[in-house]
Design brief:
single chain; 407 residues; 0% strand; globular
Length: 407
């Protein structure tokens, strides 16, 4: 295959997988975006509404670990198609809900659908994208997730404000339907890769059968990495804007702008991080520098010693540096996965992401209830600093146990 054909193939696969990942992130916030409509409709407390989202991420986290085994046993393409179909079905179920129990069931179903994406996506990228462009594939994967996060509340609130929340959810169900049709149309590009012949190193790493990889300490360090970094992310997503209002006396609209700056800068950082990661062998150093810088800026925000406009700039800067670390993070995790166990490893370690997103709002919500808005940014800084410790462990272990991968 010549370079032009290989480039076209890589771009096609990266685009398809990125579109699927953006769809999953779109569904992360379909309930949160509709809180102003769901709360009065069902007479729910904020705690009950929050529990719906906790159920979503808890189910997704547990299911993600299991989905990795299914991906390795069958194929990433089949599992990905099933996950997208479940997302669409969950939106239909939520739109027809007439009780809290039905909302809970819809959240459960959405969590099941969301659980497949990381093990399926990363297996497809590792199998079908050439090694030279893999970092760029991880970069686009992360950016597409951010786009999904950003578009979901805009779309849902726009439709709900002009019609009603049920119509908004039915409209949201059209997205996975369209994406699934596109993926099926391009199914040949996402065909499963034949299993590689195990090397001696891979055999040693996989000793103990399908669960042998769980004996690797580096896998659990990767899980801790995602758990800790996701707690910090949850603090930013859930309560950064509210904390900025309390600390700096800015309007909610201005504080929301700060969060938007974080998201946009994070996407820009991921784009640059793809080039940086592709040209580096020291992915752990990139991550440690990024999160160290982010922690210092979070502490500066907590101290409330800068003007309000600078707080917006700092939020953007935190998003930029953490975004830059994204592709290096994924390449570092790839180095921890034994050959032929990519789905299982990514499934287990990325379940830490959902676990952190489920736990974070509870922790930072308690700080806000106790009237400690500065504590939110201090907590974010602490967890970002802890990420550095896990990165040190993962980096040292992957240099020792790294196994050759097929691109």
């Amino acid at each position: 295959m010549n370079d032009t054909s290989l480039l076209r193939q890589d771009a096609r696969i990266i685009g398809l997988v990125g579109l699927a990942h953006g769809t999953s992130h779109f569904y992360h916030v379909i309930l949160a975006a509709l809180i102003p409509w769901l709360k009065p409709e069902f007479q729910l407390s904020y705690a009950e509404l929050g529990l719906l989202m906790t159920v979503f991420f808890t189910v997704s986290g547990v299911g993600q670990a299991m989905a990795g085994f299914v991906v390795d046993r069958y194929s990433a393409r089949t599992v990905l198609f099933g996950g997208i179909a479940l997302l669409g079905l969950s939106a239909v179920m939520l739109s027809s809900a007439h009780s809290y129990a039905q909302l809970m069931l819809g959240a459960f179903l959405a969590g099941c659908g969301n659980s497949v994406f990381h093990p399926a996506d990363y297996t497809l990228l590792n199998q079908r994208v050439s090694k030279a462009r893999l970092a760029h594939g991880f970069s686009v994967h992360g950016i597409s997730g951010n786009i999904g996060w950003a578009l979901s509340p805009l779309f849902l609130t726009f439709v709900a404000s002009r019609t009603d929340w049920r119509t908004a959810l039915l409209s949201a169900a059209l997205l996975p339907l369209a994406v699934l049709a596109l993926l099926v149309w391009n199914r040949h590009a996402l065909r499963p890769e034949p299993a590689p012949v195990p090397t001696a190193a891979a055999a040693a790493a996989g000793k103990g059968g399908a669960l042998g990889f769980l004996r690797l300490q580096v896998v659990w360090m990767c899980f801790a990495f995602f758990l800790i970094s996701a707690v910090a992310l949850a603090g930013i997503q859930s309560f950064a804007a509210t904390s900025l209002v309390s600390l700096y006396g800015m309007s909610l609209a201005w504080a929301t702008t700060a969060y938007t700056a974080y998201m946009i800068a994070s996407a820009v950082g991921m784009l640059y991080g793809g080039f940086l990661g592709a040209g580096s062998r020291h992915h752990d150093r990139i991550i440690m520098l990024a999160f160290g810088s982010a922690a210092l800026m979070a502490l500066l925000l907590a101290a409330a010693v800068v003007p309000a406009w600078m707080a917006v700039v700092l939020m953007g800067a935190i998003g930029l540096v953490t975004g830059i670390s994204g592709p290096s993070r994924d390449l570092l995790i790839r180095g921890a996965a034994p050959a032929n166990a990519t789905g299982r490893v990514f499934g287990v370690v990325y379940s830490g992401l959902d676990s952190g997103l489920a736990l974070g709002p509870l922790l930072f919500g308690a700080l806000m209830d106790a009237n400690h808005p500065s504590g939110v940014f201090i907590g974010i800084a602490v967890f970002q600093a802890l990420v550095i410790l896990t990165t040190l462990g993962v980096g040292s272990k992957t240099r020792v146990v790294a196994v050759p991968k097929t691109a």
